[in-house]
Write a structure and sequence with these properties.
Number of helices: 6
Shape: globular
Strand order of the largest sheet: 3-2-5-8-7-6
Order of helices and strands: HEEHHEEHEHEEEH
CATH class: Alpha Beta
CATH topology: Uracil-DNA Glycosylase, subunit E
Radius of gyration: 18 Å
Length: 278
């Protein structure tokens, strides 16, 4: 008997948790059959499967083990999620007459520039659940609890250890602020989002490439972020792999006016916000 699809395993695990803060809504509470009845089409987990699917598709594609994990901040706010649920057009669906979520429009552009196929991505988030109100941006919850934060951390660890991604693309300042403390690398010294680049690090026990990116919905640095991801993706498919000791940089023509993180001197114990030199 074959193992259940990882997405189904993730859904089953998520369905066992019910200790949400009072301003966070469980996705399962809005879907009658959570494990088998997630939204069709394409949306980040657990708004849908987290995998790229054609509009209306309910099939689970092959899981992209050892490929690209994309980590955002949260799935959506409840008002917009309910609209997606009722319209049957998911966040990443490209359907005439319906607006594709800005996150996905920008992410598709970034992936295309990086030459990474959409089917090789699993998109998940730092937080589980839906933000209250009409805006998915900003502070996720005003009432975080140790139990909720611990579950979110452990649940992401489960996803990382299951997938074993060769690269992790972190989308935006808000996601970076939550993840940098658990990234084991001197190239993640603070909550400030690094300039375009990539570096080797350990996240939740898994050694991989980390690519911090500006949130793609803002369209501010998609080119340099895509080039950093493309360089990693190309290197991991050839024998000419970069050294673990040296993070990658975009080519000279793609660099921003700020110094890329891979060329910046590492913070010393005396100047680093974290004296451990994380």
């Amino acid at each position: 008997m074959s193992e259940p699809h990882p997405v189904r395993q993730f859904l089953e695990r998520l369905g066992t948790f019910d200790a949400y803060p009072r301003d966070v809504i469980a996705v399962s509470s809005l879907l009658p059959n959570f494990v088998d009845g997630i939204l069709p089409g394409t949306a980040a987990f657990a708004g849908a499967s987290g995998l790229y699917r054609p509009h209306g598709s309910t099939e689970l594609p092959d899981f992209p083990y050892e490929r690209l994990m994309v980590i955002g901040h949260n799935v959506d706010c409840i008002v917009k999620f309910e609209y997606r649920r009722d319209s049957k057009v998911s966040h990443g669906d490209q359907v005439p007459g319906h607006k594709t979520m800005g996150t996905w429009t920008g992410l598709y552009s970034l992936l295309k520039k990086a030459n990474v196929p959409r089917r090789e991505m699993f998109f998940t988030n730092v937080y589980v659940g839906l933000k209250e109100g009409e805006k998915p941006t900003g502070k996720f919850t005003r009432h975080p609890t140790p139990e909720f934060l611990g579950f979110c951390r452990d649940f992401l660890r489960l996803q990382v250890q299951t997938m074993q991604p060769r690269a992790i693309l972190i989308l935006g300042v808000e996601a970076w602020e939550q993840l940098w403390p658990v990234i084991d690398s001197p190239h993640a010294p603070s909550a400030v989002l690094p300039p375009p680049g990539a570096f080797r690090a350990t996240l939740h026990g898994h050694r991989t490439w980390i690519v911090p990116a500006h949130h793609p919905s803002m369209q501010k640095r998609i080119g340099p972020d895509a080039e950093a991801l493309r360089s990693v993706w190309h290197a991991e498919r050839t024998s000419d792999r970069p050294s673990e000791a040296d993070p990658l940089c975009p080519p000279q023509g793609q660099r921003s006016h700020t110094v890329p993180s891979c060329l910046s001197p590492l913070p010393s114990a005396a100047t680093s916000p974290d004296a451990s030199g994380r």
